[in-house]
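Structure tokens please, single chain.
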Amino acid sequence: MGLTTTHALCLRKVDFSETSQVLTLLTDKLGATGAIAKGAKREKSSVGGPLDLMCLYQVVLYDRTRRGTLGILAQAELIDFFPPARHSYAAFRAAETIRELLLSIEVTPSDGAAVLLLAVRAMRGLGDGHETLALARFGWGLLRVLGVQPEFHHCVVSGREPSGRVEVAFSLREMGILAPPHTAGRHDLLRLSAPTLRALQHVALGNDGPGPGVDALGRAFRLLAWLVAQQGGRRLKTVPAPDRARAL
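Here you go.
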């Protein structure tokens, strides 16, 4: 068994016997991996105590992924429990949405460091009243790490830029907006309102200004989160799928 020291965000915990936990960890070296923390809930635990959800640790793992079985958690040291994310319902709900998105995709060792950095950044952006913006940026960043970069600034066929005043069509096949007449006869389109499009553009550009309103950012995140979940073939509980009959 290889001994690995890595940073880890706890995504899932399940009690195993009276003293142990089975964990799903997002790590920078192993990607998303499972581990058992034997005796973690004992008063004098060699692990350092039970792990909690959406807390960042430095852990030492006996990696047994090559055997197709759970690793063994040998040690865990708490680095950050993100206090601002636990001081309001809005921040707590956003943290749960981040956790659900991370569990909806497969994170390989090659992507682990980038995804963990995005998650930590998003968690540290909660609690200041801008949770919706933090979520939208997190969704956009996850898509890029997964190799998907939607185009929101011009038509992917003609290169024509949208006016920003009317709704546009977004192609799920081309992962970008389409201008007429390229929308004719298509069945893979979502309708995006002008405010939602501006919010998506704001997030894609990484602008730090005040930007669009919370409602538009919420709709933008809804699309980005749904696109992320599609990469893992999962359905999200906290983020409903877009309604194709109505403009997002």
